[in-house]
């Protein structure tokens, strides 16, 4: 099996090391794991592509490359430059430092990489590790993902990917903010919504007197509705959410049509 991996935390992020180990386990001794990841952190860039400027790519080692681009850029670079058209069997993106549950999914560069792979017609999975008091200061805060990641990916591969639709299915996986032994299991969930957890602006003044604005996130330990990702994660479960890049509000189509008839 040939696997392409990427992330949004950057080529030197510890979560990418965890993902490489997961991918090596899945690919097996006769497989190939290729890494194409951003040269620097790209958190929050979502599905951005570097459409208006070129990006440099550097080979750092065998099957290991860094680009000056987003995770979606990295997938494109991997498919059409690094692998030169040899399509991988699977694309994995992560393991992200922090959760990409609920509304975070809309901003996530980790999901952006998986989404681009799906748009290219490839099976893809985004993996993220929720942080919380139980794992934040641990020697390996990614332990839940490291221990349970390979088995979870295998189950998704065994289940298969629906490739009959134009907007191909991909999966968003979030490991809970606990150590591996405390993971209660896996739940298939919808994407949730944490109320009052929106991003905001926090102004600061530099020593030179210039005014800067920082983006500030909301609280991450507000549970979403039952049956959704953040609620499952905060209850100790791995969440698996099937997703598509289709942004149509299908439930609103009929009502909108009637307004124009």
TrEMBL record:
Keyword annotations from UniProtKB, A to Z: Cytoplasm, Hydrolase, Metal-binding, Nucleotide-binding
Gene Ontology molecular function: 3'-nucleotidase activity
Localization annotation: Cytoplasm
Cofactor: a divalent metal cation
Ranges where the Survival protein SurE-like phosphatase/nucleotidase domain occurs: 3-195
Cofactor: how bound: Binds 1 divalent metal cation per subunit.
EC number: 3.1.3.5
Sequence positions that bind a divalent metal cation: 8-9, 43, 96
Catalytic activity field: a ribonucleoside 5'-phosphate + H2O = a ribonucleoside + phosphate
Family indicated by similarity: Belongs to the SurE nucleotidase family.
Function text: Nucleotidase that shows phosphatase activity on nucleoside 5'-monophosphates.
Protein name per Swiss-Prot or TrEMBL: 5'-nucleotidase SurE
């Amino acid at each position: 099996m040939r696997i392409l991996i990427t992330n949004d935390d950057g080529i030197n992020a510890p979560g990418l090391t965890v993902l490489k180990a997961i991918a090596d386990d899945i690919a097996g001794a006769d497989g190939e794991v290729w890494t194409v990841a951003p040269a620097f952190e790209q958190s929050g860039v979502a599905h951005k592509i570097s459409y208006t400027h070129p990006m440099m790519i550097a080979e750092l080692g065998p099957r290991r490359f860094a680009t000056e681009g987003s995770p979606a850029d990295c997938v494109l670079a991997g498919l059409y430059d690094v692998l030169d058209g040899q399509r991988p069997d699977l694309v994995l993106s992560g393991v992200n430092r922090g959760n990409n549950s609920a509304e975070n999914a809309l901003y996530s560069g980790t999901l952006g990489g998986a989404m681009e792979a799906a748009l290219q017609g490839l099976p893809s999975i985004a993996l993220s590790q929720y942080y919380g008091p139980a794992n934040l200061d641990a020697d390996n805060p990614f332990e839940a993902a490291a221990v349970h990641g390979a088995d979870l990916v295998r189950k998704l591969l065994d289940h298969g990917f629906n490739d009959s639709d134009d907007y191909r299915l991909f999966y968003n996986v979030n490991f809970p903010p606990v150590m591996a032994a405390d993971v209660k299991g896996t739940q298939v969930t919808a994407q949730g919504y944490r109320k009052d957890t929106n991003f905001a602006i926090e102004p600061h003044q530099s020593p030179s007197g210039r005014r800067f604005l920082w983006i500030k996130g909301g609280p991450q330990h507000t549970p979403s509705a039952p049956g959704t990702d953040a609620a499952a994660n905060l209850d100790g479960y791995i969440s698996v959410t099937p997703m598509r890049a289709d942004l149509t509000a299908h439930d609103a189509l009929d009502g909108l049509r009637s307004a124009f008839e």
